[in-house]
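Structure (tokenized):
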């Protein structure tokens, strides 16, 4: 049954992706006002699929790549909807809707490949860790995609080539504010998720397991996140420089993600 619900979610995510692509391509003359409602319905089906999967399997943690993709897609949708409630604009989600669809599709058709050692980890601790760290990554990714919109709109304004979707993009100040707020939203989750990961690693493999290269890489990622926040809210970095730094941080987060799944050491999510 969870597999059925995920396909319902996928259908609504597909509709949201079409809405986003129409808006990005300039084929639609209005803002993508149906994106948030469509993604909301998809998220509800997605939540049901995740919940029933837990109830049927008795496993509360994603222990393979396909399950992790599904959880990350759900977290991305949740962050998008949270930011929509705050800013009342759907434009920050137009670049992320296709990614949500692709992650969910990969999860629906993918073959489970269990992460070595994941089943031996304390269920409550690893579940908390994954939920928190994925929310932090999702917020960072939203900051990054909003930064892309910022850079595109800035270029259009400088070149005076406003047309199509660029005309309907929020003002630069609004995009910059959304990017900063996404970072603020994600940092507490990233911090708590990292702490839960370190504790989980210690419980699973002893004190020396916290020196796992993936844990160290996650610490470096957290420090970069902290630096990014400091530069925005203490040093006053705004605009283009903040957008570029956010993109760099997201690239390094993607590297951390890749290292986890290419590594054969342990089973703790970075």
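Design, position by position:
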């Amino acid at each position: 049954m969870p597999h059925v619900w995920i396909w319902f979610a996928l259908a609504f995510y597909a509709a949201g992706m079409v809405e986003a692509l129409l808006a990005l391509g300039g084929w639609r003359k209005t803002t993508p006002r149906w994106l948030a409602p469509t993604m909301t319905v998809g998220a509800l089906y997605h939540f049901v699929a995740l919940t029933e999967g837990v109830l049927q399997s008795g496993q509360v943690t994603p222990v393979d790549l396909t399950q992790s993709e599904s959880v990350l897609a759900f977290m991305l949708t949740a962050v998008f909807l949270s930011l929509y409630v705050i800013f009342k604009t759907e434009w920050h989600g137009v670049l992320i809707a296709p990614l949500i669809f692709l992650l969910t599709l990969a999860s629906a058709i993918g073959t489970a490949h269990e992460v070595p050692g994941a089943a031996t980890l304390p269920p409550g601790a690893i579940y908390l860790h994954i939920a928190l760290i994925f929310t932090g990554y999702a917020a960072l990714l939203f900051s990054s995609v909003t930064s892309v919109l910022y850079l595109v709109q800035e270029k259009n304004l400088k070149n005076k080539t406003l047309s199509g979707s660029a005309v309907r993009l929020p003002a630069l100040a609004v995009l910059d504010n959304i990017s900063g707020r996404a970072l603020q939203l994600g940092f507490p989750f990233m911090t708590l998720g990292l702490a839960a990961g370190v504790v989980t690693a210690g419980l699973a493999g002893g004190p020396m397991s916290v020196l796992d290269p993936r844990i160290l890489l996650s610490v470096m990622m957290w420090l970069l996140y902290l630096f990014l926040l400091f530069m925005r809210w203490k040093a006053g970095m705004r605009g283009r420089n903040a957008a570029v730094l956010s993109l760099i941080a997201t690239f390094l987060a993607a590297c951390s993600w890749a290292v986890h799944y290419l590594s054969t050491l342990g089973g703790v999510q970075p």
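Reviewer-requested clarification: The two ends are 30 Å apart (CA to CA). Residues 1-114 form one domain.
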